[in-house]
Give the backbone structure.
Amino acid sequence: MTQETLAAIEGAREAGATHFVVADAHGNGQNLLIEHFPPDVEIIRSWPRPLHMMEGVDETFDAAFFIGYHSAATNPEGVRAHTFSSANYAAVVLNEIPMSEGGVNAAIAGHFGVPVALVTGDDATVGEMEELLGDVEGVVVKEALGFHSARTLTPEAAQERIREGARRAVERLQDFQPYVLDGPPVLDLTFKNYRPAEVLAYLPIVERPEARTIRFQARDMEEMARFFQFVGNYQPGLSP
């Protein structure tokens, strides 16, 4: 992951990019070997954070790159297909559109006027994001054979393909448009278990349209992201 992220930075820099913020967003948010990054790169780590996987984005950025992504929990294809939590969530839907992590993150970036320019991952992931976003620069580094199996490039070959894709993405920034939802965000979150939906529905801001599904209507994607972080992180016994 560190080397693929560095490859994306190198390719973008070759095309003229000058400022980089990297959000470490897998697992515990502390995966990247930050000592390998150039000194002009800022890295966001660990959880929770208000904008979830997109913490750090704002109106000053020209583009977002999604490196090492996977397809949605609702997609029957894709390596490790899930949306934010393979253990807890069966579906994440925004404004009646089933979403991958990439879809939700594209909507957060779009709230700030920032387009997604590059997506890397397996063929299912890239296809899913192209269907949602249109002409995004997609880099396929593996072919999904099943949930746990793939036909994959070597790390060196994948890094070179990502480097080239990042360079092309920056060279054609004018081709990309921010992904903006039609209307205020309405989140439908379906759990794999019954009890989380039951308890969250005690909140007056939460509806429960189905036994395992809650609905939350946010003012904007910033509020939606904060609510999502609350759902995924709050525990009564939290302590420093």
User: Anything to note?
Assistant: DSSP finds six helices and eleven strands in the chain. The mean pLDDT is 97.
